[in-house]
Amino acid sequence: MKRPVIGPWIAIIIGVIYFLVPLIATFEFSLRMKRGVYSFEAYRVVFGDPNFQASFTYSAVIAIAAILFGILIVVPTAYIVQLKLPRLRPLVEFITLLPLVIPAIVLVFGYLRMYNSSSWIPLTNSVRGTDFLLTCAYVTLALPYMYRAVDTGLRAIDIRTLTEAAQSLGSSWPRILFQVILPNVRVAVLSGAFLTFAIVIGEFTMASLLNRPAFGPYLQLVGANRAYEPAALAIIAFIITWACMGLIQLFGGGRQNATRR
Amino acid sequence: MTFLTLESITKTFGNQTTIHGIDLAVERGEFVSFLGPSGCGKTTTLRMIAGFETPTSGTIKIDEKDVTDLRPNQRNIGMVFQAYALFPNMTVADNIAFGLKVAKKSSSEIAARVKEMLALIKLPDVGSRYPYQLSGGQQQRVALARALAIQPKILLLDEPLSALDAKIRISLREEIRAVQRALGITTIYVTHDQEEALSMSDRICVMNDGRIEQLGTPFEIYNYPKTRFVASFVGTLNILAGKVLDSTAGRIAIDDQEVVASTGLNGASAGDTLAVALRPEALSIGHANGGSNNLTGTIDEVHFLGSVVRIRVRFGDNVVSLDTFNRPHSAPPERGQPVTVNFTREDILVLDRPAI
Amino acid sequence: MAETAAELARTRPRPVSLTWLGVVPFMLFALMFLIVPATLLMIGAFQDPQGNFTLQNIANLNQPTIIRAYQTSIAISAASAFGGALLGFGLAYAVALGHVPRWIRPTMMTFSGVASNFAGVPLAFAFMATLGRTGLVTALLTSIFGINIYRYGFNLLSFGGLTLTYLYFQIPLMILIMTPAIDGLKREWREASSILGASTWQYWRMIAFPILWPSLLGSFLLLFANAFGAIATAYALTGSSLNIITILLFAQIRGDVLHDPNLGYALALGMILITGLSNGAYIWLRSRSERWMR
Fold first, then answer.
1. Which of B25-34, B338-347, C48-57 has the highest mean pLDDT?
2. Confidence category of residue B181, pLDDT binned at 50, 70, 90
3. Does one domain contain both B170 and B210?
4. d(C-alpha A34, C-alpha A41), whole Å
5. Domain boundaries, position B152
6. Structural domain spans, chain C
7. Are residues B57 and B85 in the same domain?
8. Which CATH fold would you assign to the domain C63-289?
9. What interhelical angle do A6-30 and C159-183 show, nearest 10?
10. Is pLDDT at B172 greater than 60 in this prediction?
11. Is C207 part of the contact surface with chain B (CB cutoff 8 Å)?
């Protein structure tokens, strides 16, 4: 049975055009800052901007904090649910999928109500408190992807045997978790981490509404006021996303995906 | 009358030829098995009959009509797949009705036919179930019913039993054969299991390396294998090195002991070394039958298999296995014991190539 | 069975409380950053500023601006989800069953992983540079073909423009979800249907499509929710000129317009209801269409 392959080719060609043209156009646009010649002037301006450096550093720090905090919360839970409390699985999975159902803007609105200056836990009163809140917000955003990555990783290894082996050698619980289980799901945890980084680094809504000087609001601000720098920033952001996905592939993380709002 | 004809069929994938000119004529109502190891081309040949693959050259005729270039859905063939391939989204009844529905049969006709088919496979009450609710054996019977519902000209079965348990395999192969006989439908059955092929077929087509090695009834294939491949693939065979003493008289020396074959020695001349085959069940020990062949050796190994005791006897460099029935009142022989093995002249199979 | 379970329980006494303690951080986190905040909003939607119960906030949603914002959001989400599902399915089909060279598939999958995450503000920049008034494609179309798309009514900062932009992450997301689902179609199903006399079209209509239907529906609703909650791309692209519900809520939270927190809670409640309903509908439809699955 020979089927003509023209249809699939048309689909692929349209897809390639749709996906590559904006990238090419953006790159071309980013090179046009100097009148009449192509140059990397826009990139030079962007990289030289102290606000770029500050906001990017801030977002990177928050992202790393969110990754560490996320691992601390997700790994023990996924481990216990799989090994000891499979009854809890439906509940835990439901919870981890909630961030896909409740839009980020609604969540942050809820935080503002719950943690405002006149509430029981006035996190937004202090800068550190707000940073902590933003970190938690990002942990929440990344929860579906982090949990799924770790859960898949745990399924791939025989955690029961590993645990029993460690127990028979007299290891304590925290030791088992952090010295036996965690190294064995390193790949899964890493892919969850890079995914979290990709989602969080340019996040706009939450950072903006919590009034923190993050990379997302900075991007928006540049976009509203400049012409060529935004194109350069778009290319930089695309390369960062590509690097995160590339690292996931490199570590054998397979096909994970996420969406940022 | 020839119903299905393959005429010098070849198939090339890329630069690799997997089928080298196959000719085959199948009679109406005949049950023919394609038997061979995996990669021998049996499935490819079946898929060309079905129309999933197009032959690189040659013609396929069904009922005198050239179907070589017809699409599968124009050939009116029934097919049963190894992995059942029932449509998971349809009930058993809908699965069986599928071919009739696409042929735009009336709903009353479809209902009647589905009922008839369910009765044929002896599962009258499963019509409303989904495939996942059935056992593997039941699913394969439904697949058979689905293939037969469209009243195909030819039924093709591609290793239909290999995914099933041993017990179900045996009962189902009897059932498939019974249904095939009742309907008188021309059938091609692909298998790598010689027992299946021997027990079910009218004729067996033994294939190897994209060629037909031998075509014949199960009796012929088993008892008179034409090639060394057929002999070793069908049944268990002892192959010994024999030195030709006298070609016309059929005298051969095995480990310096003389035996006589009933057939000529394929034109081999004295001094040649031949491959000589002996079936385990043709050999017996301890008798000195007049006129038959005797070989003296020592017992190498005794395997007690229950109803049968398999004994390995060594003659110099040659080892043969032979089967004797278990007799509760006489203990099996012991290792190291000297023993005489007897067989008749007819039991010696001289294989085609005078080499080893 | 019951006996062995009881035996196990007797011979291996477990420190149950300790095990439960292990999931406490997660549960506490979920309560503090997911469940309680969302619940507080929903409660707030039924309170006046003094904290008394009222339905006034819900009633206040009935304003032309708000109704239109919901409508536009739903329309853009549905359009981009539909377009993304359709084109994403086409591409997933092409790489999975289209007999194209083997290297195309991993390339496409990797790219999809990147593009589905390339959203937010930078995506808006990219489309501005492409299809904005001074964008490359706009300029090329004008100079080569003499077609000024803006004169023909195209506007990037509109329903159509935003939908086109959203497709950039919707299509790849669909590819990522659907390719494994299409791989799940067994070759034998197609062959069995073909030998039973069915055409390719009949195979797709009667077998492949019904089997893929739950995945298709689920992906559509995921894409819908994905676009419905999105704000960064739209905000960076249009500022607050486009009246969609997320931008309206954003402005409300910032205190730019309405300045009535309780009305904001009602807006948020509406959003949760819409995404919640679409997910509920998905679960219900899936359970109906998957009777034949374990």
1. B25-34
2. very high
3. yes
4. 7
5. 2-232
6. 63-289
7. yes
8. MetI-like fold (1.10.3720)
9. 130
10. yes
11. yes
